[in-house]
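Can't paste images in this forum, so I'm doing it all in text. The chain is below; anyone willing to post the predicted structure tokens underneath?
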Amino acid sequence: MNTSVFDHPWLGGLFGDTETAAIWSPESQLRHMLAFEAAWSRALGACGIFDAAQAESAASAIEQADVEPQALAAGTGADGVPVPALVEMLRRVAPAEAVHKGATSQDVIDTALAMTLRETTALFLARLERLIAALTALERHFGENRLTGRTRMQAAVPITVGDRLLSWRLPLGDHVPRLKALRLRVEKVQIGGAAGNRAALGDRADAVVADVAERLGLQPTQKAWHAMRDGIGEYAAVLSLISGTLGKMGQDIALMAQQGVDEIALSGGGGSSAMPHKSNPVLAELLVTLARFNAAQLSGLHQALVHEQERSGAAWSLEWMILPQMALATGRGLGAAIDLCGKVERMGTG
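Text version of the structure:
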């Protein structure tokens, strides 16, 4: 039984987003974890912690390992994380002493998360650019048309379509530098070892960190961020801001589409089983729903900022429950908003 709306057999038709789901899929997460383990073995070899040839042998075996995500379920249930089970499998196919030496489960999982966020940011930046372009095109076509400006849901003074479109488009432009700035704060390698102080690496810790970061295309760090989750909290906040902007756009369109108001004409509206004359603004409503969902999730994600001492199992695993859902909601919202712009046939009056 599948209970998530994002990949539900029929609710997924409304909420699902294939590209975002692929980035956050178990297969993608596992691929990133294996990439970390291979880079880790090579880095320890390159930094002289053990034989470089043995390290390369281990890394090659890790890259070729055939691990099914389902094979990690029992181990995760027992250990709270999938990494011990994964490492046990890898040590069966690679020189055991050259696998995972000096790393900890959180290093693997958080580095995989950093790689996932890198892919997510690239996708969302591309979609933001497309959406900004689509709204700019609507301004060119309909921007001079007239609308009734409304404040507190009451008629105010006349405005243009361009006036309203600007309130949708300009915040999107602000979200682009917000996302880009976050890259330095979340696309960073996680290396701390057992208690976050890299003690197992001795005086070669900085060299190992730099080597792994370079191999994976991530930023090195001065200290492990095992218990410092502000970057993740900030990332979630930006996701909610993006969704909120899209929700404002969706709310406006739904109100403009009301019968009797008729300030916008959309193609391909949703049908009703009881009232065939209706054309429901489904995508506009969806943007409102997703905005409210992410706003609600943000408070839970910020609860995950509170880690006790050097590592928290409870706060950390709360992150796993919430952050992927927020990313899926944001991805779907951006895709839906782009589609919605393409359905606009008329805005305002000439």
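Residues 271-278 have pLDDT under 50 and may be disordered. The CA atoms of residues 1 and 300 lie 25 Å apart.
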